[in-house]
Amino acid sequence: xxxxxxxxxxxxxxxxxxxxxxxxxxxxxxxxxxxxxxxxxxxxxxxxxxxxxxxxxxxxxxxxxxxxxxxxxxxxxxxxxxxxxxxxxxxxxxxxxxxxxxxxxxxxxxxxxxxxxxxxxxxxxxxxxxxxxxxxxxxxxxxxxxxxxxxxxxxxxxxxxxxxxxxxxxxxxxxxxxxxxxxxxxxx
Length: 188
Hints:
CATH topology: Hypothetical protein af1432
Distance between the termini: 13 Å
């Protein structure tokens, strides 16, 4: 791994060290706990390195902005998926950045296509859903299904919703960074 990539890994570690202890938007877990739970599920599912890394980093946009933990409660969509994906796509392959970019769209998709999905969302997730545009329209559903990373985004969404368990023991951040390291753009 080159020095530039080492620096990016260190930047990720520092983001979690500095901001990861903030609460995960109205849930009973911190940003770091949520990320580690999501990545643990990806590993247990036998996901690819980039998808495991996406599971770990899908909410990195929350760690990059300065809008605070309660922006959704204040009626603000932080667009964390876009912010995070833009940061990630600078360094990492599309099979990491695109599922991150699409994980909010995947929530909207699941709410539109699965009658029980909306009911199982937490109150915080329901609030953010409304700020994010609510369930997709039929046309949006059809367009979303055409995206090359549609399936990965829906899988990531399932892990995301389940990664809110207070007190769940997971491996530490360092255990998942090898998956991130293997997901950089190819060196030229």
